[in-house]
Design a protein that fits this description.
Elements lengths: L1 H23 L24 H22 L14 H12 L2 H17 L8 H31 L13 H10 L3 E3 L5 E3 L1 H14 L10 H33 L2
Antiparallel strand pairs: 1-2
Helix pairs in contact: 1-5, 3-5, 4-5, 5-7, 6-8, 7-8
């Protein structure tokens, strides 16, 4: 397990630094006075690397969302069994490219844009793109702590399990309560420390590389509570979408 933890810590650190470096942007190059920009070649359309990168990300997210919609549903409680440490690591890897991870980053980027004005970022769409890069790094860190490291240390299950046998309103309450309640490896219900402590640890790590971000316990608690509310909404989707899909697409 020590080798897996060491490798995964290196992986998430490199991932966070790459996303954070991209989000920071680079200062514009100042050309020398005697240098003139080269003229574009005839018949060649102007290049737009930012637009190309945005389109690549958009296609990837659309593909992942389509896979989530038309792919296999979340398992039900009837399928529960405890996971090994290696299996929890595989859960972390799967969630690194999950549509939910990308969507969480988008929700948090928009929330940050609406509730604060961080002068370290540029204005307009470029600033929102930088925010999204930072939030994606934080979301990936969330996944590492919440889906692998803390569940492995505390012996908790990081997965969500549907419970379609419950009446409708109890089913709603069940799905939303999973953000604070989970199943331990011994099969008992327990406080979801993996989700709460993992989210707090991730936010504390983001303080190391996010420019102009307010630090301390208040922003950490605010971030954790907001993410718990968002996750409870996602749980509702995971709980009821298979029923909707079956009626709409007959599968």
């Amino acid at each position: 397990m020590k080798e897996v933890v060491s490798w995964s810590m290196n992986f998430i650190l490199v991932l966070c630094l790459c996303c954070a470096a991209w989000a920071q942007g680079t200062p514009p190059h100042q050309p020398d006075a005697d240098q003139l920009p080269s003229a574009p070649q005839p018949g060649t359309p102007p290049s737009s690397p930012q637009t190309g990168a945005f389109n690549d990300v958009k296609k990837m997210v659309k593909s992942e969302i389509h896979s989530a919609i038309m792919g296999p549903s979340y398992p039900t409680l009837d399928n529960w069994r405890p996971l090994t440490t290696r299996e929890k690591f595989n859960v972390f890897l799967e969630h690194t490219y999950s549509p939910r991870t990308f969507a969480n980053a988008g929700v948090n980027a928009i929330k940050d844009k609406l509730t604060g004005d961080n002068r370290e970022y540029e204005r307009g769409a470029m600033g929102l793109g930088q925010l999204y890069g930072v939030e994606l790094a934080t979301s990936e860190t969330d996944v590492f702590f919440e889906r692998f490291l803390v569940p492995s240390l505390l012996r908790q299950d990081p997965r969500y399990f549907r419970n379609p046998d419950l009446p409708f309103f109890r089913r709603v309450a069940y799905s939303m309560s999973r953000v604070v309640t989970t199943r331990a490896d011994n099969g008992r219900e327990t406080f979801n420390a993996s989700r709460v402590l993992g989210g707090a640890a991730s936010q504390a790590v983001s303080d190391l590389y996010v420019p102009g971000q307010r630090q301390g316990m208040y922003p950490i608690a605010n971030r954790v509570l907001f993410d718990l509310a968002v996750d409870s909404g996602f749980n509702l989707v995971h709980e009821f979408w298979p029923d909707v899909r079956r009626k709409l697409f007959h599968r």
